[in-house]
């Protein structure tokens, strides 16, 4: 069984074709600048040279067709025809309270996805465009929606509700949903395997640290709390997002800077976070370089980020009544040796500390805590595409 994994942004399509017999990636690629001048498809077949295809790509349907053409091309393709694709798995950012698991896409599911647009106006519309494009290009091929929010639907009410009038939850669905669910799910499963333990016996804190960042408390295999909220703005300091802040700051800044609701939303989502504090960049690598060169605001931004991560870890230890393992994942978590040190070496009170030699690793699954640590710390590279492919196989594997 071969599964095409699709992740559509407003002007992009990321894809992988996965052979589910051995979970190998046959090809992967990226369509960029859809509807913009200079659109391009970069296609990478396994074991072959990368192929760059420049073409006019005015919409997602044309983009998906180019992807299929690349996958079936006699020279750089990896399958003989589109008929070899058994199913398509789509990343969908927001499923609201409607979906606590991945689902086979039906007209009723599409209607529900459209109803969630209001809660994820930047993400759900392109996700829906990708589904419609695949339906048009590959009629009859089953499709599955895998939600960023689904893994967090096990949170208890006291964890996901905000202390505002209850009617806002009942009427508008205002609550904490959480995101990065496929990543938190994957790395929690992987660390249990590496430890030789049952997931159902562990208390795990997963730290998905990148330009977008979130932390989850996973007790006995279920998420009981997570740092992102109604939107991905809440929680940790991020590349350009403020993270948690006093809500009264919003109207205060609006009045002082004469900003509209949309402008203040942009202020908090695009101009804040590490970029806003450092004044250097939203890329942690650039900020780290500036800090090493003596830039005090860059150093402050990194310290602020690490401090906020430690605070969340501490609060989730309390929420779970302890912790057995802490996992670092995503771009920063997998690759920044210094940031893991900043975070991990402030957690001695838990009975854990980072081993500098073990921590000298990037993008590889490995324990990084000192020998004999009461609480283990691991680096686990995330693989959200594999989660999507596995869920798609589980749902579509028995379809006639």
TrEMBL record:
Its cofactor is Mg(2+); Mn(2+). The record marks 180, 241 as: Transition state stabilizer. Substrate binds at residue 91. Mg(2+) binds at residues 7, 384. ATP binds at residues 14, 208-212, 283-285, 331-335. It catalyses: acetate + ATP = acetyl phosphate + ADP. It is an enzyme of class 2 (transferase). The active site is at residue 148. It holds the Pfam family Acetate_kinase. Keywords: ATP-binding, Cytoplasm, Kinase, Magnesium, Metal-binding, Nucleotide-binding, Transferase. Its EC number is 2.7.2.1. Mg(2+). Can also accept Mn(2+). SUPFAM superfamilies: Actin-like ATPase domain. Pathway: Metabolic intermediate biosynthesis; acetyl-CoA biosynthesis; acetyl-CoA from acetate: step 1/2. One of its GO terms (molecular function) is acetate kinase activity. HAMAP family: Acetate_kinase (MF_00020). Belongs to the acetokinase family. Homodimer. Catalyzes the formation of acetyl phosphate from acetate and ATP. Can also catalyze the reverse reaction. This is Acetate kinase. The gene is ackA.
């Amino acid at each position: 069984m071969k599964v095409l994994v699709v992740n559509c942004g407003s002007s992009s399509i990321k894809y992988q074709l996965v052979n589910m017999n051995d979970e190998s990636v046959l090809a992967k690629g990226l369509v960029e600048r859809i509807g913009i001048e200079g659109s391009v498809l970069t296609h990478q077949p396994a074991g072959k040279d990368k192929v760059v295809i420049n073409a006019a790509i005015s919409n997602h349907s044309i983009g998906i067709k180019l992807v299929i053409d690349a996958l079936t091309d006699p020279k750089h393709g990896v399958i003989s025809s589109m008929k070899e694709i058994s199913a398509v798995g789509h990343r969908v950012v927001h499923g609201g309270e409607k979906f606590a698991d991945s689902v086979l896409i039906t007209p009723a599911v599409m209607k529900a996805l459209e109803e969630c647009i209001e809660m994820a106006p930047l993400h759900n519309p392109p996700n829906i465009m990708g589904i419609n494009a695949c339906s048009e290009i590959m009629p009859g091929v089953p499709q599955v929606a895998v939600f960023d929010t689904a893994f967090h639907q096990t949170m208890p009410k006291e964890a996901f509700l905000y202390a505002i009038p209850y009617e806002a939850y009942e009427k508008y669905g205002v609550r904490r949903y959480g995101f990065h669910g496929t990543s938190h799910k994957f790395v929690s499963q992987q660390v249990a395997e590496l430890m030789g333990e049952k997931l159902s016996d562990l208390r795990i804190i997963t730290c998905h640290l990148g330009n977008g960042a979130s932390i989850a408390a996973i007790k006995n295999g279920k998420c009981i709390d997570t740092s992102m909220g109604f939107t991905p703005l809440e929680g940790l300091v991020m590349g350009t997002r403020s993270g948690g802040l006093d809500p009264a700051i919003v109207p205060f800044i609006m009045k002082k800077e004469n900003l509209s609701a949309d402008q203040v939303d942009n202020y908090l989502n695009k101009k804040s976070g590490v970029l806003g504090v450092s004044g250097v960049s939203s890329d942690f690598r650039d900020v780290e370089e500036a800090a090493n060169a003596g830039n005090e605001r860059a150093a402050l931004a990194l310290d602020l980020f690490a401090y906020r991560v430690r605070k969340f870890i501490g609060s989730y230890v309390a929420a779970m009544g302890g912790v057995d393992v802490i996992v670092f994942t995503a771009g920063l978590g997998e690759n920044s040796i210094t940031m893991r040190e900043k975070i991990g070496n402030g957690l001695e009170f838990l009975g854990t500390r980072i081993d500098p030699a073990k921590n000298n690793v990037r993008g590889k699954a490995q324990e990084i805590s000192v020998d004999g640590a009461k609480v283990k710390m691991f680096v686990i590279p995330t693989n959200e595409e594999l989660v999507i492919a596995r869920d798609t196989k589980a749902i579509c594997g028995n379809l006639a």
